[in-house]
Known about the structure:
This protein has 333 residues and is an alpha/beta fold. The protein has helices spanning 2-6, 10-18, 22-33, 37-50, 70-83, 97-100, 112-115, 134-147, 163-168, 191-196, 210-227, 249-266, 268-295, 299-311, 317-330; strands spanning 58-63, 88-93, 120-123, 152-157, 173-178, 199-202, 237-240.
Amino acid sequence: xxxxxxxxxxxxxxxxxxxxxxxxxxxxxxxxxxxxxxxxxxxxxxxxxxxxxxxxxxxxxxxxxxxxxxxxxxxxxxxxxxxxxxxxxxxxxxxxxxxxxxxxxxxxxxxxxxxxxxxxxxxxxxxxxxxxxxxxxxxxxxxxxxxxxxxxxxxxxxxxxxxxxxxxxxxxxxxxxxxxxxxxxxxxxxxxxxxxxxxxxxxxxxxxxxxxxxxxxxxxxxxxxxxxxxxxxxxxxxxxxxxxxxxxxxxxxxxxxxxxxxxxxxxxxxxxxxxxxxxxxxxxxxxxxxxxxxxxxxxxxxxxxxxxxxxxxxxxxxxxxxxxxxxxxxxxx
Length: 333
Ligand SMILES: Nc1nc2c(ncn2[C@@H]2O[C@H](COP(=O)(O)OP(=O)(O)OP(=O)(O)O)[C@@H](O)[C@H]2O)c(=O)[nH]1
Ligand SMILES: [Mg+2]
C-alpha cells in the first residue's frame, strides 16, 4: 500500500483511488487544487485515467443564505445516508475563500459526527484560488470521488454571488435552504437562484419558529407555482425541515430520490449530464481562449493601447475589439 501511495504514475494513482485508498485520493485532490502548473497537470492525468469510472453518484447541490443551516443539514442527511450503507462525499464551493481565506466548512461547523465515519469523505474548499477556479476544482474532485465509489456527492455553497449557478450546473438536484420568514430579497437570495431550485427547504422549522416556517413554506410553494412552466417534468417542491432536530430530512431525501427515478426513466438524466459536460468543456475553452488572448505575444501592449483609446473616445469599443481580435488572429505563434 505504501508503494502505491508513493506512486507518481497517474494510472497507479488512479488504481489506488478506485481501490478506495483515501490518502492517495486526498493527495490527488491537493494536486488538482495546486496553482503550480506541473502539479495541476499531474492531477489532470489522474482524472483522465478515472473519467470512465465517474458519473455513478447522485449529485446534490445545497445552497442558501449564510447561517441558514447548510452544514448542519448536510451532516444530518449524511448520517442518514451512511446509516443506509451509502458512501457520501461532501464538497464545498466557497466564493469567499480566495479573498478572505475563510471557508464555508471552516471553524463553525466541522460536521464532527459525520467526519468520523469511514463512509464519509469531507473536503472543505481550498483556501486560495486554484488554477481552474474554485468551481472547476469542485467539479473535478466530484469526478474523483465518484471513481472512488462514493454513491452520493453533496456540494455546499453559500447563496450569494455566482457560485450557486456554477454548482447548479454540476449537480442532478439543486436544493435551496431558506430561513423561516422573509422573502428572497430579505434573505439575500436572488430570484434567479429560486428558479434553479428543484426543491426549497425552509430550515429551522423547530421551537418557536415552527409555525412561521410552515407559513414561509406555503408562501414559497405558491411562488413556485408561478415560476415554473407546467411542461417541466419535475415540479419543484417546497418543504420544511429542522436540520438540528432531524425533522423532515428524510422527506427531503425522498424528494431527491423521486426526482432521480423520474429523470432516469424519462431519459432526462442522461441528457442533463451530457449537456452539463458539453457546457463545461465550452467554459474551459472560453476561459482558455480569453487567457491566450490577454497573454498572447504583444497582446498586453495592444490591449492597453486600445483601452486608452476607448476611454478617451478616440475609437469605439467595437472598433477597438475588432483591432484586437485581428491582432490576436494574425499574431505569430
Ligand atoms: N434551531 C435551529 N438551528 C439550526 C438548524 N440548523 C442549523 N442551525 C443552527 O444555525 C447555525 C448555522 O448553522 P450552519 O449549519 O453552520 O449554517 P450554514 O448555512 O452552513 O452557514 P454558513 O456555511 O456560514 O453559510 C448553527 O448555530 C446551527 O446550530 C435548525 O434546523 N434549527
Ligand atoms: Mg456551512
